Amino acid sequence: MHKVIFDTDPGVDDAMALLFLHRHPAIELVGITTVFGNASIETTTRNALFLKGAWNIAAPVAKGIGETLDAGRPHVGWPTGIHGDDGLGNIDVPAQIDLPLDPRPAHRFIIDTVRANPGQVTLIAVGRMTNLARALRDDPEIATLVKAVVIMGGAFDVPGNITPAAEANIHGDPEAADVVMTAPWPVTVIGLDVTTKTVMSRAMLSDIAERGGAPARLLSDISQFYIDFYEHHVDDGMIVHDSCACAYVVAPELFQTRSGAIRVLCGGIADGQTIQKPDARLFPPNAWDGFPSQQACIGIDAEAVLKLIGDTLADGN
Ligand code: BDR
Ligand code: CA
Q: CB under 6 Å to ligand 1: residues?
């Protein structure tokens, strides 16, 4: 069993990833922590509570702080054209959800849970890296107590999706992402190099909705707006970015990784770009020296990953 804290900004593809974690038999979801990104922190937190209630998820929800690590960063606006005004595909999520939040801020929830389960917790982060960086800043020792960190973010050998250089989760808080990549904990980065190859067709989603009962039907309803947006980018379906990071945790053999220190550019026209120094390459002294090798994902068996995601969403196996 993998004990998982899911750090998320729901978000349509985040919702799919959450149902995957909830239904996968090898995952024990111990907490959901929210971050802003696909919508404001109020909206992503409301959405996490909505999904927790709709899907009967036991894990507590802890709300993140709604600003970047470096509070001076200008706000860039929410991607309502992709995730809808409500962050969940304009399905009319109720304004208020009558469920309690964990009293701690997200980063404190992460610290406490990691400390209570040394060596056992996997952090899956599929939004901005703000909560993870805050947790490290407040308690650097947790880096040695976490089992693994798996993030959806970044673009190594392909263009970004928010600028030619940067992927959205990293671009939204580059300083936080650089803290996370350079900390002495094992990070695997599932970025656009592989997620953009993982496109779930409309037909596959409707098959999941038929097989997977009411929770899968809700997921399908949430996803339609996002699929319509992606029609301009992919043939017929949705890129399942965040579910790829979850699939990696239970089936790493379906991914190919490259080892090397990873830095994030902070500022300038390539703000938020992720750059890896592969271990196999030698360079004169540079800004990557002295930082731990992390794993950048550069290959995926997309068909097998989609099948794993689809089967898990449909029936939990
Ligand atoms: C990432 O950005 C968000 O819009 C998605 O939820 C995903 O985590 C893709 O760049
Ligand atoms: Ca996300």
A: 11, 13-14, 38, 79, 126, 152, 161, 167-169, 241-242
